[in-house]
Model the fold of this input.
Amino acid sequence: MLISRNWLQSHFTTELPSAEKIAETLMMHSFELEGIELKDTDAIIDIDVLPNRAHDCLSYVGVAREYAVLTGYTLKTDRYHYHDTITRSETTVSVNIENNNQCLRYLARQISNVEVKESPQWLKDRLESIGQRSINNIVDASNYVMFDLGNPIHIFDAEKVTGDITVRNAQSGERMRMLTGEDVELAETDLVIADDTGVLALAGVKGGTKAEVTATTKNIIIEVANFNPATTRTTARRVKILTDSSKRYENGISSEIATESMESISRLITDIIPAESICQITDTYPNPELVTVVEVQHDHINRLLGLSLSHDDVENLFERMNYQVHTDGQKYLVTIPFNRLDLKIPEDIIEEIGRIYGYHNIPAQNLDNYEFSPSINQTVYVENTLKDLLTAQGFSEFKNYTFVKKGSIELANPLATDKRGLRKNLYTQVLENLEKNHHNSDYFGNDRTAVFEIGRIYSKDGEIDQCCIAVMNKGKTANKKYGTERVQLESLNKQINELFGTTISANYEKNSVIFNLSDCFNDVSDYADILRKQSYSENARFHSISPFPYTTRDISLWAYSAGTESDIQLIIESADTEFLKKIFLFDQFEKEGRVSFAYSLVFQSDDETLTDSQVDADMQKITKVLEDNGCEIR
Done:
């Protein structure tokens, strides 16, 4: 958020220090600093207000309160004033709220006989200092109060509003033209401000042209409201219109600031635009916010912060923060200000105490004599020991999604239609992965596919950490080399029992074996070296596999005299091929003093499906370079 020092100064009774000093104080206690820019007689401080403080500090008054707490500077009160000639009317604006869950509070007030014209210079300067374009005095006043107090404000031309103002959901197929000129089709989930004839504004996002304030406007209706953050966020992103207003509603603001915001905008407009009369406020507030009281124990404060604060120290910090606190022995009952939506639990209050006290003021402690012997996490030990065992035998690890299409436990708010549940077993996904990877065994040069996954499954009885190991051989040769899939899995079962000195309850599903990690728990004194092992070389580099199909070609040859397997492979690699990806030796024999090698060559493109002619061109290059180096193609 951009903070003008001159604008911030208007909140204080005494002169503020330089922008650099202000920024340093805020940076040490409250916000990250993005930078400072000097502008003529002003300085602009750019701070990063995170979402947890957006509800109160995306406003000058919020930042001013923060700075006052940190420095003890005195804030001004009564910063907005009515013009002396204003008269009051008993009339009101009629407002109906049809959806109390999406419109939390709605205030409306009419001001009569205004003059729309250019804003006074001070108002234009304030807005332009933070990158806002001046439009006219009415619109500028609403934008000024929004940035100043944090509550978005919208203003309608009263003569263009027919009948009552109704806050409702849009009707299917309903459309409106935005102030920016876009013609938008509305959804039934959108909240709109409407009159008896149509839509006036998209609630919390953008106004429409139907009741737009123009140069001929004489009577206006001011809207100060609070809308549901989720509704505003959904609508703003659906119509792709993100505004300063929607940003504030999305992060949530307190409905309690609406009254002050309405009074402030009313005073500002009548002060810069002498108007004839101002009517009563219509305030529709179906479910007023409740006061929140949080209990904090004194010893919990010191234990969490690593301090030795006295009761007086804590009470002085609460006084600086302007919190209402009732002390009851060793506990504090803290009444949370309405504007601090982020304070909900004792730890939130303790964080505030530490932040205002200053984390940089907390003394460092010498931990040389601190005795601590961490316990061994059995799950971590077993998981890493299994990984070392399996990867050493050529197994690859999977990490599948926990979310699946259907499970024993269903999600209240699924991410997608195929991720509605939590998985109830590992083997379903592992066997699917096994099959897919086995189809690519030629690409990897494997005569078997060996995989595993260690993860958590979910049932109505709770959560369980499991391991699933799966293998699939490629033909009879692999069966002779490794044994059948069941033989391999049973051998691993035996190895795991011997490794941990336990007996696992193994369940076999097709080409897989599954067991609980807890079956492997035993007495372990340390992690040994299991956390420092790695199954890849330091020079290994990741690259994605092409989504296009690969093709294989075999080539057999008599090597030149003294030519070795690696020599021949280097010759093949030296050919100026375009699509050769991998080279695998699959046969070798000697006859009459000559050595024969047979290679499987894998071709693939990153951009297209290869044709036979493209592969033939590469094969011709390989054949030529082999023959040029004394090899005889068989």
